[in-house]
Amino acid sequence: MTKLAQTKEGYIFDWNGFKQAGQLQKLLKQLGLTKTTFHGLRDTHASFLFSKDISLDYISRRLGHNSILTTQQYYLELMPEKKHQQDADALSLLNDLSL
């Protein structure tokens, strides 16, 4: 991983006029990485946590959502395979309970 220069406050971006999006694009270009946005990085981070079976409650709090439902609805839409797995797990649980 490349060591990034920091501001005197310890950040990698200056707060000059809220131009962080442009600074991010410049940094990504310097590193040879695909263009994205801060929100894209946030979604990637949350999706990665979700794919590793980190609890939905934890992810929701980490993202600052007021409701776990917001997190659930948005990320289940992004990751339909997770929804299918949860549906299968729920059916399996119901089958086990009926035995």
TrEMBL record:
GO terms for molecular function: DNA binding. Coiled coil: none annotated. GO terms for biological process: DNA integration; DNA recombination. Transmembrane segments: none annotated. It holds the Pfam family Phage_integrase. Residues 23-75 form the Tyr recombinase domain. This is Integrase. InterPro entries: DNA_brk_join_enz, Integrase-like_cat_sf, Integrase_catalytic. Keywords: DNA recombination.
